[in-house]
Write a structure and sequence with these properties.
4-stranded parallel sheet, 9 strands, alpha/beta, Rossmann fold, 16% strand, 5-stranded parallel sheet, binds N-carbamoyl-L-aspartate, globular
Length: 280
């Protein structure tokens, strides 16, 4: 007898439902974890990868018309699109739920949920933690969404970035309004030894207007073994991935490096999101 596959053990809240994953920007983890989640929960899958080339977007169709069309086939849509606000635009006209897979340099809410789940699971708490967020705070949607989500908790945020890619003023103003404890820093030397969590992300090359600006900051923060040595013994290192060169691959075997463990958590969290929305 074969051992029962875990797949058969999951409840099937998506049985008889069709989910569409429509990605206008590249993705490995977000799309594939959503697609695995959909299938684990018994749903039918429609997938449009490279939507900017393979859908009628290429012919000039508006996002709104694409979404109206998908409403005829799908009971839910997972959308990734390069424009900030695109997911809200889609949600405003869609008759079926739209789940964000990331809107340009805006937000990436399910990524934040999986990082939060990973932090909570390892540290058994979120309140009281010192969290360093380092890199491209201007363009990284993963950074934006985690900062927003952590603002609900009693954390101390260390926002580490050079001025040209610092967190946008409106987002800082929001943190102020919410009374979140935060510090804006240009380097990590003074704080690296105090952090409970370090959240890295690649510098988002494709979002820069001028390539020279990217070149000037692309290697500003690289977490290598020497720097990791300065971190607390029980700190955790996260990165939404893809990793470009913000973390030296030799750090991967450090027990504090949790970015690949978080990938698996992404599957469970996206299953939970789908179950929350669609289980009747
Ligand atoms: C991120 C994204 O696409 O925003 N990756 C992801 O979804 N896991 C991060 C990135 O592209 O740098």
């Amino acid at each position: 007898m074969f051992e029962a596959s875990p797949l058969s053990e999951y409840p099937k809240p998506l049985q008889y439902l069709t989910m569409a994953t429509v990605f206008f920007e590249p993705s490995t983890r977000t799309r594939l974890s959503f697609e695995t989640a959909i299938q684990n929960l018994g749903g039918q899958l429609l997938t449009v990868e490279n939507a900017s080339i393979s859908s009628s977007d290429k012919k000039g169709e508006s996002l709104e018309d694409t979404i109206k069309t998908l409403n005829a086939y799908a009971d839910g849509i997972i959308l990734r699109h390069p424009e900030i606000g695109s997911v809200d635009r889609a949600a405003a006209i869609s008759k079926v739920p739209i789940i964000s897979g990331g809107d340009g340099g805006g937000e990436h809410p399910t990524q934040a949920l999986l990082e939060l789940y990973t932090i909570q699971k390892i540290k058994s708490k979120v309140d009281g933690l010192k969290v360093g967020i380092v890199g491209d705070l201007k363009h990284s949607r993963s950074h934006h969404s985690l900062i927003k989500l952590l603002s609900i908790y009693d954390v101390e945020l260390y926002l580490i970035a050079p001025k040209v890619i610092a967190l946008p003023e409106e987002q800082l103003a929001e943190l102020k309004k919410l009374g979140v404890k935060y510090r804006v820093l240009d380097g990590w030397d003074d704080v690296i030894g105090e952090l409970d969590v370090l959240y890295c992300n690649r510098i988002q090359k494709e979002r820069f207007k001028f390539i020279e600006d990217y070149q000037a900051v692309k290697d500003k923060y690289i977490l290598n073994i020497q720097t990791a040595r300065k971190m607390k013994k029980d700190a955790i290192i996260l990165d939404p991935l893809p990793r470009i060169n913000e973390i030296d691959p030799r750090v991967d075997t450090d027990p504090r490096a949790k970015y690949f463990d978080a990938v698996k958590n992404g599957l469970y969290v996206r299953m939970a999101v789908l179950d929350y929305i669609f289980a009747s």
